[in-house]
Amino acid sequence: MTPDPPTQRILIVGATSAIATEVARTFAERGASLVLTGRKPERLAALADDLAVRGAAEVETAVLDVLATESHAAVVERAFAPGRLDVAVIAHGTLPDQTRCQESAAETVRALEVNFTATAALLTLLANRFEAQRGGVIAVITSVAGDRGRQSNYVYGAAKGGLAVFLQGLRNRLHHRGVSVVTLKPGLVDTPMTAEMPKNPLFSTARRAGRAIHSAIEGRRDVAYIPWFWRPIMALVTSLPESIFKRLRL
Ligand SMILES: NC(=O)c1ccc[n+]([C@@H]2O[C@H](COP(=O)([O-])OP(=O)(O)OC[C@H]3O[C@@H](n4cnc5c(N)ncnc54)[C@H](OP(=O)(O)O)[C@@H]3O)[C@@H](O)[C@H]2O)c1
């Protein structure tokens, strides 16, 4: 008789996000053990109950506002406490109001801090632990918005684009230690983040995005567009010469 595969231990930061919730459910349905972090204890507790019903081996929760970078080390220690962590998924994010960012340097800095600086700080700690472990997967949700700056959301895009470059370097460093770094680039997904946006056929559901992210992690993909059709769309968008692109109102 072949022995059962060992239970996967998964850390999800920003676990109460609509997309991360679906990623967590997909792992739970496969019997994984999960460590969830988020800002709201009551929402974390409700998600933990939901995941237990869906088949999670074990669910732990920890309250974490990612801007409190002094709290990152304790969360990372807890995730690695049993001696091994298989996957870390970083999902938190905010979609700032571009006009407000243009009017306020403080608003711009805050958007960059949540979406880039705090994430880079957390990744620095996680990367060192995974490197010492010599294995595992770090998966981070960036965005197609990071592929090209547009007037309608270049502050968010700059944070996500900067994150994608950070992950590119991390992947190059950790590949030599058996650690995979997965850059996840969703397009438009119908979640609380995009609640105010008029919907069109390019929108995906959080369920579809969550499943596609799970499969990119399992496949240890380097860069995954979520869903896949955003890859050709963004190839077209990034191929336009700057002399033409700057004239468009996007
Ligand atoms: N929806 C899209 O179309 C889309 C497209 C591309 C990329 N993304 C990215 O996908 C990820 C998930 O977003 P979503 O669409 O699922 O949106 P969402 O449901 O609004 O989730 C955003 C999550 O980020 C958390 N968060 C915000 N600031 C935080 C902080 N300082 N510390 C800890 N957590 C914080 C929120 O926590 P609270 O519940 O406590 O507020 C919430 O759980 C984000 O990185 C987003 O940028 C989304």
How would you summarize the topology of this molecule?
Elements: E1 9-13, H1 18-29, E2 33-38, H2 41-54, E3 58-63, H3 72-80, E4 87-90, H4 98-103, H5 105-133, E5 136-141, H6 154-174, E6 179-186, E7 189-190, E8 204-205, H7 206-218, E9 223-226, H8 230-239, H9 242-245
Helix pairs in contact: 1-2, 1-7, 3-5, 5-6
The chain binds NADP nicotinamide-adenine-dinucleotide phosphate.
Question: What's the assembly state of these chains?
Answer: single chain
Radius of gyration: 18 Å
Order of helices and strands: EHEHEHEHHEHEEEHEHH
What level of helicity do the residues show?
Answer: 40-55%
Largest sheet features: 7 strands, parallel
End-to-end distance, in Å? Answer: 59 Å
Mean of residue pLDDT values: 97
- Backbone structural class: alpha/beta
Write a concise keyword list for the protein shown above.
single chain, 250 residues, alpha/beta, 7-stranded parallel β-sheet, 9 strands, binds NADP nicotinamide-adenine-dinucleotide phosphate
Short description:
By secondary structure, the chain is an alpha/beta fold. 47% of the residues lie in helices and 17% in strands.
Describe the protein's architecture and organization.
By secondary structure, the protein is α/β, with parallel strands linked by helices. It has 9 helices and 9 strands. Helix 2 links the parallel strand 2 and strand 3 (58-63). Helix 1 runs parallel beside helix 2 (41-54), helix 1 crosses helix 7 and helix 5 (105-133) runs parallel beside helix 6 (154-174). The longest helix is centred in the middle third of the chain and has 29 residues, at 105-133. The radius of gyration is 18 Å and the shape is globular. The termini are far apart. The relative contact order is 0.13. The model has no long low-confidence stretch (mean pLDDT 97). Residues 14, 16-19, 38-40, 65-67, 91-94, 114, 141, 143, 186, 188-189, 191-194 line the site of NADP nicotinamide-adenine-dinucleotide phosphate (NAP).
